[in-house]
Structure formats: structure tokens, C-alpha cells
Amino acid sequence: YKTSRCCPTRHNESLRTFRRVPNPRPYQRERYPTVACHGLLRCTNLYCRPAMAAPDRYRLWNRDVAACLNYMHILRKLRRNGMVPHRFRRVAVAPTRRRRRVDNQEQPRTRIRLDDDSPS
Questions:
Q1: Own/partner long-range contacts of 111-118 (Cβ < 8 Å, ≥24 apart)
Q2: In terms of C-beta density within 10 A (0-12 exposed, 13-18 middle, 19 or more buried), how is residue 60 classed?
Q3: Comparing C-alpha atoms, which of 85, 82, 78 is closest to residue 12?
Q4: What is the distance between the alpha carbons of residues 45 and 70, in angstroms, rounded to a whole number?
Q5: Would you kindly state where each structural domain of the chain is located, as residue ranges?
Q6: Which residue of 71, 76, 88, 93 is 20 to 30 Å from 7, comparing CA positions?
Q7: What are the distances in angstroms from CA 116 to CA 40, 60, 73, 110, 112?
Q8: Where would I find the beta strands (DSSP E) of 8-120?
Q9: pLDDT by residue (tens digit) across 36-49?
Q10: Is 78 helix (H, G, I), strand (E, B) or coil?
Q11: What burial letters (b/e) apply to 85-107, b meaning 16+ CB within 10 Å?
């Protein structure tokens, strides 16, 4: 969970898609001529920018490489203390109770028991 969104160097959720490419699906090109390239991500964290680079340059990541490095980080933490880091956990949401909708006109349901002794 979130392994391809978190930057492996800054450990925060700062990886974003940015590149638009021609649509690889020929039947969809008329409706959507360009689509976002999900395989190449850039880190939007200011401290993650390469040293001596122009201010508008970002560190680029291959999505699969970033996810793999984050998985390695998860495994190291699991071995060290048996816990997954907080940034890779899902938020625990309390289960919701569903109430049965009862209409005023609805009659209670009853089961009819069929015995062998009943007259036919």
C-alpha cells in the first residue's frame, strides 16, 4: 500500500505523475489523444532535488524501482521490530453497521414449518 507513492529517499508521499504521452490504445486516441505516463514519477519534495540542478528540475523515479526500494524498507522494519512503517499502513476505519430498512407497511416474515404429520 502506497509503495509507489512514497519517495524512497525522503520517505514521504511526494511521488507524482507528470509526463503526458500519446495514447497507446489506437481505438481511444480520438477521445483521449494523450494520457499520463504512470511508469515515470517525479519527487515534488524540495529537499529531494538533485544538488547543483536548476530550480525547476526534479528527481525522477521509475515507479517499479521506487516500489521495490520501499518494499525493501518495509522488510527491514519488519525484521527489526515486527511492524510495518506507518506511512505504508492503511488507515483503520471502524466497521459500519447496516440497519435493516423496515417499512411501516411491511409485515413480519414468518416461516411455515412443513411436518410429515400435517394433513394433505
A1: none
A2: middle
A3: 85
A4: 17
A5: 15-86
A6: 93
A7: 71, 77, 67, 19, 13
A8: 15-17, 20-22, 34-36, 40-43, 59-62
A9: 999 999 998 888 87
A10: helix
A11: bebbeeeeeeeeeeeeeeeeeee
Cell of 34: 494523450
Lookup result for grid cell 499520463: 36
Residue 32's φ and ψ, nearest 5 degrees, are -130, 90
What is residue 61's three-state secondary structure? strand
Average pLDDT of adjacent 10-residue blocks, the chain of 120 residues: 85 89 93 94 85 76 93 93 87 70 60 60
Strand pairing class (59-62; 15-17):
unpaired
